[in-house]
Amino acid sequence: MRPIPKIKLYGAEGCHKTQYYRLVLDKIGLPYDFLDVEANEAYAEELRGLYENRKLNFPTITIGKKKLRNPYREDLVKWINKLIPQQLEIQHDTTNQNYVLDINGEKAVVSYTLKNGKMYLVHSEVPYNLRGRGIGKELVIKTFEKLTAEGHKAVAVCSFVKAIKNRDPYWKDIIE
Hints:
Glutaredoxin; Aminopeptidase; five-stranded mixed β-sheet; four-stranded mixed β-sheet; elongated
C-alpha cells in the first residue's frame, strides 16, 4: 500500500462530536491518531498551535496539512477522497474505453484503445482543480493494477503513463 497522509483527530473522550468522528473514521477504515486534548496537555498545545486564536477548537481533524474544524460528514469524506485517493475504487468503463477514478463527482481518466489484443494507454487526465495532489500517479497505478487483474496486456503510449511505468521496476516489466 502506498503511504497515506497522517490523520489526527483532536478531541475529548467525553465529547459526543469527537465520538461521532471516531465512528466515521473507523467505518471508513483509515488509520488515525486520536489525541485527547483534555487528558494530555501536549495534545492540547498542539491543537492550540493550529489556530491563530490559540483556542481548543475541537473536534478538529487534520489530514496531512489540511485542517477541518467540526466538518459535516460529507465534507470530511470529500476531503478524504481528495487527499487520500488510494482508498478510491477505480472503475473500468469498457463502453468508453476508460479507467475512471471518481473523486467527489469529478473524473480522473486513463483512456485506451484496443489493438492486436493489447490495451494502448493513450491519454490520462486529472481535473484541473485536483492536480498536484498525487491523484494522477494513483490513477495510473490503479489502472495498471485493474487491467492486469482483468488479464489484459498493456502498452504505455501517454507520456505521463509511460513516466509512472518507468519509475517503478515492477510495472516496467509488466507494462510495455
